[in-house]
Design brief:
Blueprint: H1 4-8, E1 20-21, E2 47-48, E3 81-88, E4 93-100, E5 107-113, E6 121-123, E7 129-134, E8 149-154, E9 160-162, E10 170-175, E11 181-186, E12 191-196, E13 203-204, E14 216-217, E15 223-230, E16 234-241, E17 248-249, E18 255-256, E19 268-269, E20 275-280, E21 283-288, E22 293-296, E23 308-310, E24 316-322, E25 327-333, E26 338-343, E27 351-353, E28 359-364, E29 367-372, E30 377-383, E31 387-393
Antiparallel strand pairs: 1-5, 2-13, 3-4, 3-31, 4-5, 6-7, 7-8, 8-9, 10-11, 11-12, 12-13, 14-15, 15-16, 16-17, 16-18, 19-20, 20-21, 21-22, 23-24, 24-25, 25-26, 27-28, 28-29, 29-30
């Protein structure tokens, strides 16, 4: 999950040229440990971007800077995979790894030079591809003039496709539920944009630069929920149709987080497509879109709930809970009833539910862990090669 300030204050970073390589399987030892006032919206419009690209090929691209390694065959036909990013500070590279949920078949999928922890990646909903952002070298030979573009890679064949090709950055890709489109942020103002998977129909969904990075598609793919932020730390939740039209505010109450706790509203759809879960002030809320009402799920006095994730079947919510003395990964149901909890002791946690809703994968102290909800025990898969972040379970 992304920090709120990435959406509110776009980073101004000179992006050095990068290289991409496909590398093979890596064997690491595994270790098992068991323990018990409302902001006024800017106009939302659909603007066709100035054409800056030729027709994209529909066959896999080849590039001397990108090599496909046959060792990807080691994960062919495997499911139950987990992807995560690993940052090697010494080499200044970020690698997207794949690993089986039991800690075996650890495989490097793609390695990028430069700090791309803030550029995002995401699984396709069929679990066969990953979209990521990369600055190609062929556009310019001058440092800081490369633009980040969106790519997709088939995790089994290694087939690589380039989705965008415009003269501005394209970052933080997210697949639509039907797998035919990808949303992302464009340009220095990080405007929410969309393109078909073949690179056609690239356009802005909104010209409002206040839209935060933590937005989500509705399950049926017809709407997008997002937050709009105004300094200092004031947020409201909005909905729009998937074509960028019919933008309207969901929560009528102004979300004022003050200055002590810096986090965002993070709207996340429920599987029924009629409800959202989101953060409001310090707590989690469950909102009925049709009735424009919300129910408070947690009751925090002094310390905020931080990041959260709804289980794929919509029956549970995992979140980071700070009681003032320690930090926990906590599981509740949709009535706010406690299910289970595990002490983790650090805020540096990214996590994601397994598709069967039986486990949560997360990073902690540069290690990859799986928490099994029913049995209420932890399994440490391994220590990461570098600094690992953002684990995502294969859908």
């Amino acid at each position: 999950m992304l920090f709120w300030f990435l959406g509110l204050f776009p980073l101004i970073i000179g992006c050095a040229r990068e290289s991409v390589e496909m590398v093979g399987q890596t064997d690491l030892p595994t270790e098992t440990v068991i323990s018990s006032s409302t902001p006024s919206p800017n106009p939302t419009s659909i603007l066709t971007l100035t054409p800056t690209k030729t027709e994209l090929p529909l066959t896999p691209i080849s590039d001397p800077k990108i090599t496909i390694n046959p060792s990807l065959n080691s994960i062919r036909d495997q499911r139950d995979l987990i992807a995560f990013k690993d940052f090697d500070e010494t080499e200044d590279t970020v690698t997207i790894f794949l690993v089986h949920q039991d800690g075996t078949s650890l495989t490097k999928l793609v390695t990028l030079s430069g700090d791309l922890l803030r550029r995002g990646y995401s699984w396709s909903h069929d679990g066969n591809q990953i979209a990521f952002s990369h600055a190609p070298q062929e556009r310019f030979k001058l440092k800081y003039l490369d633009y980040f573009q969106i790519y997709t890679i088939d995790i089994y064949s290694g087939d690589l496709h380039r989705v965008t090709n415009g003269l501005e950055d394209h970052t933080y890709p997210v697949w639509s539920p039907d797998g035919h489109r990808i949303t992302f942020f464009s340009g220095p103002e990080y405007l929410l944009s969309i393109a078909d998977i073949d690179g056609s129909e690239e356009r802005y969904l909104s010209t409002d630069p206040r839209i935060g990075r933590d937005y989500s598609w509705s399950p049926e793919g017809t709407r997008i929920a997002y937050e709009i932020g105004d300094p200092p730390f004031n947020f409201s939740i909005w909905l729009m149709d998937a074509n960028g039209e019919n933008a309207h505010q969901f929560e009528t109450e102004y979300l004022d987080f003050g200055t002590e706790y810096n986090y965002t509203a993070i709207p996340e759809w429920m599987p029924d497509g009629d409800h959202l879960v989101f953060l409001k002030q310090h707590d989690l809320y469950y909102g009925d879109i049709a009735g424009k009402s919300s129910t408070r799920l947690t009751f925090t006095i002094d310390y905020p709930e931080l990041w959260f994730d709804v289980s794929p079947n919509g029956s549970m919510i995992a979140y980071i809970n700070n009681d003032g003395e320690d930090i926990y990964l906590t599981i509740i149901d949709l009535q706010g009833n406690f299910i289970s909890e595990e002490r983790i002791g650090t805020f540096e946690v990214d996590f994601d539910w397994s598709p069967d809703c039986k486990a949560v994968v997360f990073t902690m102290n540069n290690s990859l862990w799986v928490y099994y909800v029913d049995g209420q025990y932890l399994v440490k898969l391994f220590d990461c090669p570098g600094m690992c972040r953002d684990p995502q379970w294969q859908p």
